[in-house]
Amino acid sequence: MVMTRSHLSDSTLQTLPAGTSIPAYDRGEVISGIVHLGVGAFHRAHQAAYVDDCLAAGETEWGITGVSLRSPDTRDALAPQDGLYTLAIRSSGGEQLRVIGSIGSMLVAPEDPGAVLAALTDPHTRIVTLTITEKAYLRAAGGGLDTAHPDIVHDLANPQMPKTAHGFLTEALARRRAAGTAPFTVLCCDNLPANGATLHRLLTEFAALRDATAGIIGIADHIANQVAFPSSMVDRIVPATTDADRARIATELGVEDAWPVMTEPFCQWVIEDDFPGGRPAWEKFGVTMVRDVGPFEDMKLRLLNGAHSGIAYLGLLSGHATVDRAFADPAIRQFVDALWQEAIPTLPEDAGLDTSAYTAELAERFSNTALAHRTAQIANDGSQKLPQRIIASAIECLEAGTEFVHLTLVVAAWIAACAARGKTLPENHFTDPLDTALTALLSQELPANETVTAVFDLAGFAGDHAERQTLIEIVAVHLVHLRRDGPTLAFAALGI
């Protein structure tokens, strides 16, 4: 006879094994003050955990209403569990289990846009946070709003039934303004350069188009001048959850958890302190509140995320399935050290950044054998990630006259890894928003220089920078090496 376990839920919390951390507050007393767009694993391992700490400290007006803009999967997993899930904090030395209770309800935008707008316009909602990934900001190659995107076109024509974050935020802010309700603060938590300012610009651009389409004036100006968009920097490694993870967690807890989240002990959040409507006391739980998040953001993007991209693409081309295995490869480890030495001089010297301690900590995190962070997961959406992780650093090195050959190898490795799908890599091993055009281009097997030029044009890399051609030529040399003998020859050309 097969025994079935009960699900994790409010009613089973007290049955969990001793040593499992559970919400230290009455969830029935929590009021939703935050709406979060994009309830993926990262949000549940990061912002939701910080908010859980605040709720446990008595700040019960800051519960989270989660919104999925696309798939019902997370809602379907968490709804039977009363929004609860297990956060498994894993290190090479062991695992700590913590049940997070800060997400009170989940909405799926395509099913009921009206319910999402109702949550956003609720006067109790004072902060809207976002982790919708870089591609969901719908930027054109030049960095502005992709006004031709079908979802943008739809939202301009159907403001009451939006599909995009731009449409939901703009309509909600318009309704709040009409009702005399103060605007919420919009807190972007995605890896965009100057993410608050970037979202502010994109949303103002969208609102201006909406004003023009509707023949009215006002919401764009309101967003431009009355709504706060603090920037933030987030950092925590969150591998994709596997069926083996689910089975292990269920065995340890004695109850089923449909979607536990795996993560590392390290967690960082740096936020610009600009919240006119109030905020949780995040600083009591390790969040760094600052006037300017820029230097922290650049350090993370260029040293952690940049190295992650290099490890992912070179790891895939070298046959390494996870970050720890790739980082244990002596050639890749030496490459990462050299990449850091190229990127560090592009960071501001007067911001008090301790890059030596930071890279030492990164090395320890990359070596965490318990995470099993898949290189294919990191490889997704390279066309959206490489501009801020790699291209920006390479351009600054070029302008300063310093070396940047390791940085440019990352771009070539991305191109080579994309071309390897369906050949030495599985066909859909990782994905990119430009896949249709990339696949057509790479299938032509053009000479390296022509390939790189076409990819730069397609992805908008380096824009109209005067030295763009120099970058293309250096990336093309790397691509020749990768095509001829994979990372072995590319590393050898760098003296690795």
Automatic annotation (TrEMBL):
Residues 292-477 form the Mannitol dehydrogenase C-terminal domain. Pfam families: Mannitol_dh (PF01232), Mannitol_dh_C (PF08125). One of its GO terms (molecular function) is oxidoreductase activity, acting on the CH-OH group of donors, NAD or NADP as acceptor. One of its GO terms (biological process) is mannitol metabolic process. Residues 33-284 form the Mannitol dehydrogenase N-terminal domain. It comes from the Bacteria. The keyword NAD applies. This is Mannitol dehydrogenase family protein. It comes from Mesorhizobium erdmanii.
